[in-house]
Amino acid sequence: MSPVIDLRSDTATRPTPGMRAAIAAAEVGDEQKREDPTVNALEDRAARLLGQDEAVFLPTATMANQIALRLHTELGDELIGEENCHVFISELGGPAVHSGVVTRGIPGAAGRYSAEQVRAAYRVPAIHSPRTRVLWVENTHNASGGRVWPLEEIDELRALAHELELRFHLDGARLMNAAVASGVDAAEIGGRFDTVTLCLSKGLGCPLGAILAGRSEVMTNARRLKHLFGGAMRQAGIVAAAGVYALDHNVDRLADDHARAKRLALGLAEAGLAVDPDKAETNFVQVDVAPLSREEAITLLAEQGVGLSATIHPTVLRAVTHLDITDEDIDGALEAIPRALGVRVGA
Length: 347
Ligand SMILES: Cc1ncc(COP(=O)(O)O)c(C=O)c1O
Hints:
This protein is α/β, with parallel strands linked by helices. Helices cover 42% and strands 16% of the residues. It has a 7-stranded mixed sheet with strand order 2-8-7-6-5-3-4, with helices on both faces. It has a 3-stranded antiparallel sheet with strand order 9-12-11.
């Protein structure tokens, strides 16, 4: 059963009445033939939003990431990214399975790594070495708690990627959170990369859907890979309508999710829990529940009707705000979380 206050993930959102009405009214056609007007409209819109020529509508951000990797690599190539990025830890070894690619994780701070670290990790071309081929940025960075990349650091990496002839991919599953939090246009960020993934089913509130965007000549191949990976659909306008609705209604309001996360972080820190409010840059709050384990804490919280979820760290949980979390939910969480954990942690 779902917890009463479900802060486990921003994927928990259910379509609002307005989104459901848009879904019901969607004009549809055969997407595989490019005859679905709603999918076509969403793709045009998303390409502009992400600062790219063309966008392809896909079922999931995992598929978008995996197609991007396949687009940019040959068997035996190497992918460099921060060691805890989603593509390394939560996509089941997809780089190896789908593209025959080896991965090289760089230890990060707040999900970010520097140009110097990339230079050190880069393999000078040699007859016996894998070819370093792709540089991967995740913004916001999930495992570090929804942290945001500054544009200047992206620019340094971009220049280096150009110098070393590396393809530059942005896993922007939560790019709109990054854009809203930093006040930088999503197109400004997305346009700096060769390809960009955007997820529609997280903070944007759609039931499913994702976008992969890039230059038109690259996206032609992405459409072929979409078929190959089993992602080409039929009357997908039913779902794309939710995406169009989300871009109209659910982007600016991400600031509310961020404000609620900040209020939760400040309140929990005030209550004596191990939370650093400065790290709550977007819609994630990380709570260190030591000496409890993640599992023990999740059970205690569930008993109080609050859902938090595990992170990669054995004693750290995350609370994620989203479209279905209200100010009253934050009030409730601020009472229930210290009640569930307060007497046991931080002693
Ligand atoms: C950074 C990042 N990339 C990709 C994904 C994959 O998204 P999907 O569930 O749509 O495949 C996630 C999901 O949490 C994510 O956090």
